[in-house]
Amino acid sequence: MSNVFVVAIDGPAGSGKSSVSKAAAKQLGFAYLDTGAAYRALAWYLDDAGVDGSDTALVIASLPAFEYRIGTDPDEYFVLVGSTEVTEAIREPRISALVSQVARVPEVRTFVNNLFRTIIASSEKPGIVVEGRDITTVVAPDAPVRILLTASEEVRAARRGAELSGDAAKTAAAALAKRDRADSAVTEFMTAAEGVDTLDSTHLDFPATIAAVVERVNRARNI
Ligand SMILES: Nc1ncnc2c1ncn2[C@@H]1O[C@H](COP(=O)(O)OP(=O)(O)OP(=O)(O)O)[C@@H](O)[C@H]1O
Ligand SMILES: Nc1ccn([C@@H]2O[C@H](COP(=O)(O)O)[C@@H](O)[C@H]2O)c(=O)n1
């Protein structure tokens, strides 16, 4: 890996990984890599092509044609599959409900992890905040800052529910718990691995959570 300073952040669904990581990256002048977007984009791609995401052989066979690009500038975030911008579409509850079944396939994980390592190594900023489920343990276990960002399930569900409307808001808590259960069978993100710092935002507001991340990074950089 290159000399880029990696901040690795993992956590369960709705713990604030993307919003906090993006804001911390902006404050630090770092790049930002949302790894969940790759799994979501693959789920979107398969769904769009009418491929059954539960058919492991078909999912693996689809990987070579999956053209994926993500913006790592926190001010210009985008996600592309081929020439289609899917930045918003991959956040839909429908895709959230499909994503775990593709993320459980080891060949998918190897494929996207190679992409992530390439993106990290080619970053032109002094550092990069990388968030997901297995960043502190698998993608960047040697990162100088490793954080497990968490919050109680009730608080996470309430924050996620507040973003949604209609039926999706009502079912947000159940959907979030279901996804965590499925993802926990594949990666460990509910408890911190050795050397990983737990940041519990249950009783912290958004600015205080960002400040806690930035403070950890500055301390590690002796700033
Ligand atoms: N400390 C906080 N206080 C209040 N709201 C917060 C805090 N942290 C995050 N949020 C809000 O919680 C919601 C969920 O955050 P976010 O989407 O970043 O989580 P996530 O971990 O990336 O979720 P997912 O894994 O489902 O993509 C957002 O509306 C975000 O603004
Ligand atoms: N490192 C990662 C990141 C994500 N996943 C899977 O992708 C889904 C979407 O992630 P979000 O962070 O956008 O919620 C997540 O539910 C996991 O299935 C992963 O396995 N590893």
From TrEMBL:
Residues that bind ATP: G11, P12, A13, G14, S15, G16, K17, S18, S19
UniProt enzyme class: transferase
GO CC, alphabetical: cytoplasm
Predominant cellular place of this UniProt entry's protein: cytoplasm
GO MF term set: ATP binding; CMP kinase activity; dCMP kinase activity
EC number: 2.7.4.25
A UniProt-annotated Pfam family: Cytidylate_kin
Catalytic activity, reaction form: dCMP + ATP = dCDP + ADP; CMP + ATP = CDP + ADP
Cytidylate kinase domain segment(s): 7-218
Keywords of the record: ATP-binding, Cytoplasm, Kinase, Nucleotide-binding, Transferase
InterPro entries: Cytidylate_kin, Cytidylate_kinase_dom, P-loop_NTPase
Compartments where located: Cytoplasm
Domain of life: Bacteria
Family: Belongs to the cytidylate kinase family. Type 1 subfamily.
HAMAP family, per the entry: Cytidyl_kinase_type1
Name of this protein: Cytidylate kinase
Record organism: Mycetocola tolaasinivorans
Upper classification of the organism: Bacteria, Bacillati, Actinomycetota, Actinomycetes, Micrococcales
Name of the encoding gene: cmk
